[in-house]
From TrEMBL:
The keyword NADP does not apply. Keywords: Oxidoreductase. It comes from the Bacteria. PANTHER family: DIHYDROANTICAPSIN 7-DEHYDROGENASE. Its EC number is 1.1.1.385. Belongs to the short-chain dehydrogenases/reductases (SDR) family. One of its GO terms (molecular function) is oxidoreductase activity. The keyword Oxidoreductase applies. This is Dihydroanticapsin 7-dehydrogenase. It comes from Sulfoacidibacillus ferrooxidans. The gene is bacC. It holds the Pfam family adh_short_C2. It is an enzyme of class 1 (oxidoreductase).
Length: 238
């Protein structure tokens, strides 16, 4: 695969999809730096910095220190909280909005604006931006916001020829989804219920979503811009 030269920044690089993307970029022998509110485990050999994506000063300090040109950005940091709209409390709604939406704005402001001309940015949204769910309506709304934001960013950065896309995964076997399954009375049943909604009858592995992100970052996707790529094994179509 061909890539722009420069460093690739991945948010949410300590776990799940973000971590798989860091590993794939490293395997491609690219320069990669991850940031996350959580420290990485010791098996991560690439540079990792503690940054809260809702904290503007953290992001500014991080981006001010970057000396290398940025070739690409993947913003994967995010949370999912489930709950019916009738019972979800305001603190949880605010947390979702802050991390998923405000975090995307701040990452775009402090890291995205520093991407060199011709670079690429991928914001991780979700298939739930496109389908209704009573289980996590506020989360879905935050992911819909990311999809809309990405389109505007692609327009904003057109003079710099930066491609900006949303990656919308379906159910992916990560600590985020495992936590949600574990909250239900029968985690195995909850997992099976998610799998039954997918034509391939299984959840994605983080590496499969990482492959899609790598494609979107690469020059192989040189004409893909302002797009939302749904990687859900066939869920939203039926
Ligand atoms: P995960 O919980 O395994 O990883 C998310 C990472 O984001 C964690 O390392 C966490 O520490 C980090 N993070 C959370 N808040 C942060 C903050 N304020 N600042 C910096 N880092 C922060 O989850 P995942 O499943 O890998 O999810 C990655 C992205 O993919 C999320 O945006 C999620 O909404 C999205 N997504 C996940 C699924 C799924 O089924 N797992 C499906 C669709 C979309």
């Amino acid at each position: 695969m061909r890539f722009q030269s420069g460093v690739f920044i991945v948010t949410g690089g300590s776990s799940g999809i973000g971590r798989a993307i860091v590993n794939r970029l490293h395997e491609e022998q690219l320069d990669v730096i991850s940031i996350d509110i959580t420290p990485s485990d010791q098996s991560l050999t690439t540079p990792h910095f503690i940054v809260d994506v809702t904290n503007e000063q953290h992001l500014k300090n991080f981006s001010d220190k970057l000396k290398k040109p940025i070739a690409g950005l993947v913003h994967a940091a995010g949370i999912q909280l489930t709950g019916d709209i009738a019972t979800m409390n305001i603190e949880d709604m605010q947390r979702l909005l802050e991390i998923n939406v405000l975090g995307s704005f701040l990452v775009a402001k402090h890291v995205g604006t520093k991407i060199q001309d011709g670079g690429s940015a991928v914001f991780v949204a979700s298939e739930l931006a496109f389908i209704g769910t009573s289980e996590s309506p506020v989360y879905s709304a935050t992911k819909g916001a990311i999809v809309a934001f990405v389109r505007s960013l692609a327009v904003s950065w057109k003079n710099r020829k930066i491609r900006v896309n949303a990656l919308c995964p379906g159910a992916t076997d990560t600590p985020l989804l495992q936590r949600i399954w574990n909250e239900s009375p029968s985690p195995e049943k909850a997992r099976r219920a998610d799998e039954e909604l997918i034509l391939l009858n299984r959840c994605a592995q983080p590496d499969e979503i990482a492959s899609t992100a790598i494609f979107m970052l690469s020059e192989e996707a040189s004409f893909v811009n302002g797009h939302s790529l749904i990687a859900d094994g066939g869920t939203v179509i039926w």
